[in-house]
Design a protein that fits this description.
alpha+beta, 6-stranded antiparallel beta sheet, 3-stranded antiparallel beta sheet
Length: about 675
Amino acid sequence: MDEANKSGWTCPECGTAVDTSKMGFLAEVSCPQCGKEGRANTTLANFRLDNILGIGGMSVVMRAYDPTLGRPLAIKLLNETYRTQEDRIRKFEGECSLMAKVRHENVVSVYSAGWDKGQFYIAMELVDGENLELIIDRRKFLLPNQAVEIIRQVALGLQAAHEAGLLHRDVKPGNVIITKDNQAKVLDFGLSMESQEADGDTEEVIWATPFYVPPETLRREKEDVRSDIYALGMTLRNLLTGVDTMPEEFTSVSSLLALKEKFPRMRTAYPHLDPDLCDFVDHMSAFKPDDRPADYRDVLAELAEVQEHLAREGQRRATRLWLQEKKREIMILAGSALLGIILATTVVCSTTVREEQKYITAPNDRTSPEWQDAAKAESLIGASQWQSAASIYQKLAEKAQDPAVGARAGLMAAMFKVLQGASLQDADALLERASRHYAAAGKSSFSAPGGWQETQAAVELAKAQAPLDVGRLQDIRQPLLRVAAAAVAIARDMEAGFIPEAQALAKAASDEVEQGSGALAELVAPFKSYELQLAHDAVPKTRERVLNLLGSGMLDQAQGAMQVLSTLKLSPAEKAELQVQQELCKVAKAAFAAFRKHGEDPIKAMASPQLFHNAASHVEKDDASFANEMHCLALMLRGEYAKAFSLDPYKDNAESDKPFAVLMRHWRQQLGAK
């Protein structure tokens, strides 16, 4: 260990010693002599601290390195708020001793623990992976097979903990890490307790997440293994639906309990999901502990049945689609034989014609490996193996020689990108590949059979500028192409803030897959989840659009977006902000009129609040406060409310009866600003 690091930090540039005893770990420090910057307190016990991985409500986790064993690891410490509180330290030490009892591949391992520099620390396994909560935030939801497999692994880890006499008491996606090898690992036993001690939490504060916390915890009743099973069931519900909030607002423990008791059943709320899977989720998350599985053996037995059922259903659908594909091949071969007879009576001498014929027949060669791969991808959709299907489409979009296959694959891969929560940029890259496929094929391709022109139309529709009218989808006759184009167009409309158009497209696409057959019918689950996520994103996306339009000075368009926002389900705070924005719009219109009267361009001024301030000073030379008022107004329009209130020229005069002073006091009250 660096001796200088024990008592302080020594500047590597000039050798000046700096006292860092009162600084935290990895604190930024600057040399008072030469200004050289560095980090202080970078060692703990025999570990080298590298960087902070995360900060929670009670603890901080840092990436570290053990030079003795030559391996990276994670170091967990209480954060500054709690590291001097004796009761928290005891709980922290207890967590370490409890976690040390559990040795399982689905639980993050504890290596060691101890005291150093007045701090109790836990040295743990460093997992190379991603937090499950972040995965859901990015992808919106998981496919049923993926979600069930993750829950199976988490259940195995929790079972090992329970067999060691331990309850987790905070099961949720945020406490699960998924490794690069798709292994789930449970972590953060910070709220754990010995099973025999779980007679009700005596703390005044309930440390739990509302969506996942069991009813008995809220009632401060005895907790047992069924409490963790409840939270595990709610975790599976979140993985399948992307929803982790209560259906209504609550203001107390009793109102939260009431919401949990009438929580909608999965079959009712999500009819697109497999009924057996829905029943399994509801069984685990039943309101009464006696109505849940008794232990993890029961959970794992039920889960195995659900996995077997999903696999059986997938195989059944795959077989049905295989038979449909074979029937289609027979029809194609019969058609090809007839075409051969016709072509045999025609003498084709021109080299140019023969060359063009190659491109015309290539897209219809259903026996080629590329067409077989495309057929396999469609069969995988029918088996609900969407991830595998998406992977095949991705490869075909990148490498297909047959332009018809490449273009269709690009569109289908783009659809799966948006269904799985990827950015529009990723989807657009695939659409560009599709465009290049049909552009490179030349004019001869457009006379080819196999729906070539329709593929082109569907790709162009998916690339069209938002908003997209639902009626334009009807130009695409093939349902699968129509739905794929709709999926990308929905994402484009949402990103641009065209919420009604996006929801209309989502409804049309959902109806299409619900009434479809074959591969199309099996897209019900991801499309329904996609539709639910769109509804979930509608408010934040529309609020963002309103702010962007207001901040750009596009007041008429902003009023239209606010009208849309007013039809959505808003929280009281969001309703208050909307009312302020509507009033802001009226005031801004009057101010803009004054600007134009004096030859100033308010839209140009809106590019910067300071520019607005300067422009205002030229408009009303006889009223110096007008410039400050316009500066505040510009900040309000841009959503910088706190800054606007701090610069309010009347903030220290609560009795001012100037119109703008009255408005600012009113807006401050509406927004609950101090």
